[in-house]
């Protein structure tokens, strides 16, 4: 049933740089999977990040070339929409494709193409996820409509002027502000500048990107009493140190780089190393793997943020938006700033965020509801193609 696959690498220059304690980004670096089912075409995306999962773009392309579309197609029951989506979910792509970003790219392409084939919006795949054994989504958590998104302030941006530059209405409607930090003393200053400007009902979190030592974190914790949580304070997966920090300070901790799958989540929960996790589609291996991780975290009593990778070019943010607007289990949702990083749209319809109400709206289907623009395709190269009779070919 899969008639053609093309792999692309999208390297699009950003109009503004985004930086944090671990990296600085000036261009997109996404792998795209273009997957044809007869006359419909689906697009998937992964964002390999060596400082998050240890993945590289070249490694993700190689992982995708080791994947056999014909073998995947044979394991999918194409007879109806529900059967197709359930069998794609049952593939457990992160177990078949090496690296979460490559798995995410294949999965989103398959789901997008299947939804377009059956003329359904991607949001309807959540009905399959909601019915998983042991992870039933309570009815009250299903929702549809715009989702509130947080404001993320990069490391190089001044907190005071960023918030002062907002209109009073935009500042008042903020539900959550996430501040990238590095040096612990500067972090306290950045926090207090934000607190001075925000209402008590606006949550604030700090994202350290693994930049603090356990000693620094313990020393500074008493000054962080009004943070909602601190994201990835220590080196990734330093479980005993994270647990000790939790025990000695009570600091709420969100895991990001430390938690990419159910095994990480189990370890974190057993060690009592965290209170929250950051779920991001590419980091976690796709829509279904992210949904499973979030549902399991909720069962374990951990809160979830639905996060993004900086410079997602299309299918990733569109698929993420399905979870953002379809499920109400997120404590916070991030949208990214695709409209500012890429002023010339990469998709049709273009990426948009309501920056007065700080909300994103659901996309109409079929599939993800977006198409790549000529501008995006101009910034891609195609390292490999696949067809049933010839298999993979480098291009
Ligand atoms: Mg983070």
Question: Can you give me a brief rundown of this structure?
Answer:
The protein has 395 residues and is of the alpha/beta class.
Question: Helix and strand layout, with pairings?
Answer:
Layout: E1 2-10, E2 13-19, E3 24-27, E4 30-37, E5 40-46, H1 57-65, H2 69-74, H3 81-90, H4 93-96, H5 100-117, H6 126-130, E6 147-148, E7 151-153, H7 159-164, H8 168-172, E8 176-180, H9 184-197, E9 203-207, H10 214-220, E10 229-231, H11 239-249, E11 253-255, H12 262-271, E12 276-279, H13 281-284, H14 287-299, E13 303-306, H15 315-326, E14 332-333, H16 338-341, E15 347-348, E16 359-360, E17 371-372, H17 374-378, E18 380-387, E19 391-394
Parallel strand pairs: 7-8, 8-9, 9-10, 10-11, 11-12, 12-13, 13-14
Antiparallel strand pairs: 1-4, 1-18, 2-3, 4-5, 6-16, 15-17, 18-19
Helix pairs in contact: 1-5, 3-5
The chain binds magnesium ion.
> What's the N-to-C terminus distance?
23 Å
Largest beta-sheet characterization:
8 strands, parallel
CATH topology of the largest domain: TIM Barrel
User: What is the count of structural domains?
Assistant: 2
Helix run count: 17
Low-confidence stretches: none
**Any idea what the shape is?**
globular
- CATH homology-level superfamily of the largest domain: Enolase-like C-terminal domain
Q: Whole-number average pLDDT?
A: 95
From the coordinates shown, what is the CATH architecture of the largest domain?
Alpha-Beta Barrel
Bound small molecules, which ones?
magnesium ion
Instruction: Please report which band the strand proportion falls in: under 5%, 5-15%, 15-25%, 25-35%, 35-45% or over 45%.
Output: 15-25%
- Strands of the biggest beta sheet: in what spatial order? 7-8-9-10-11-12-13-14
Bin the helical content: 25-40%
Helix/sheet category: alpha/beta
What oligomeric arrangement do these chains adopt? single chain
Record field, number of beta strands: 19
Radius of gyration over alpha carbons? 20 Å
Q: Assign the CATH class of the largest domain.
A: Alpha Beta
